[in-house]
Amino acid sequence: AQSVSQHNHHVILSEAASLELGCNYSYGGTVNLFWYVQYPGQHLQLLLKYFSGDPLVKGIKGFEAEFIKSKFSFNLRKPSVQWSDTAEYFCAVNVPPGGSARQLTFGSGTQLTVLP
Amino acid sequence: DGGITQSPKYLFRKEGQNVTLSCEQNLNHDAMYWYRQDPGQGLRLIYYSQIVNDFQKGDIAEGYSVSREKKESFPLTVTSAQKNPTAFYLCASSPLRSFEDTQYFGPGTRLTVL
Q1: pLDDT, tens digit, 9 for 90 and up, residues B68-77
Q2: Residue of B nearest to A6 (CA)
Q3: Is the pLDDT of residue B27 over 70?
């Protein structure tokens, strides 16, 4: 079974600082990778996803993530954060193939607080 | 307006009572899921269903039950057997139509047992 680790539980940054949130997974085969975001009082939203192809994935709101297969990592980055990025961020993984329901395995989440 | 709806948003229950959480989707998705979210633990899968009248246990199914009588509906019952039911419950759905399958989430129901 796969597992996901997010080592940063709470990150505090000032506006305009650069962001990198770590995500590592344990599974030896092909995986699909996701980052979800949960803004205060809102539902979980998809930020970006990786299935195949270019390992550098761009998502909404200026976020990007890079899949490094040799390191089993899928770190989330943003060059300049805003106060509105304050939220909880979850990394998740599931295993292909498609055509059948598969659970997402989530990391424990990283709370990002951006100070104005 | 397409999406996933969950009701109620907040739910209070006395110990020993069963309670049912609603999840409806109008996205025509085949698969539906229930997750439980606890602080510092991420989301954990309770049950999932990929077709009407069929569902499978997830990692933490004990004390919960589900039904899938209609494609658009996947209600979750939290029974009195669930030892620690206070949590945030999230419903999700996915299309299962392609290799690139993505789950989309509803707004959640916060259950508090008094």
Answers
A1: 999 999 999 9
A2: B42
A3: yes
